[in-house]
């Protein structure tokens, strides 16, 4: 048996959007179950995101420390951001986020992994890129505001991040998935065997 997620959509009898926010909304669908019953399912509708595991020549990952109000924590994270424009090329969005949050550019880009962050209650899809051959970006730094004005920036060895993940000290989804995927890729076919940066992404289709 092939272990692979497959697309499927059950019948929806009715749908409502009781809340619409600045970037996301909440939808309620009445979904027909396999036994014919109809059950309401509430979930957050999300535009999708990109994240960047930027790896330097010293095998350190570029990380940011940022306050996240819903969980009342300052979390260590990798650069990430929303797909603000429908159909936006995720590579371009990732390059923008790396520039805006860290003022860094990368010459080598590959897809590390694609994930649904919380599929039981949100349709957010995230593409996590691996970026290598890093250098300082040109031009002025991006002007930060709100939570990002308090953001800290560091570079941490891969091994230290992995230990923090397994010790329950690091919790950000993209950092956890990105670091462990990096280690898995290295122990498998190697980083050069990762998908190209423009690989198709059915969860958030785009034009190259």
From TrEMBL:
Gene3D superfamilies associated with the record: Nucleoside Triphosphate Pyrophosphohydrolase
Name of the protein: ADP-ribose pyrophosphatase
Membrane-crossing segments per the record: none
Organism: Streptomyces viridochromogenes (strain DSM 40736 / JCM 4977 / BCRC 1201 / Tue 494)
Pfam families xrefs: NUDIX
Molecular function terms from GO: hydrolase activity
GO cellular component assignments: cytosol
Domain of life: Bacteria
Residues of the Nudix hydrolase domain: 44-178
UniProt xrefs under PANTHER family: ADP-RIBOSE PYROPHOSPHATASE, UDP/ADP-SUGAR PYROPHOSPHATASE
Record keywords: Hydrolase
Presence of keyword Transcription: no
Chain coiled-coil ranges: none
GO terms, biological process: nucleoside phosphate metabolic process; ribose phosphate metabolic process
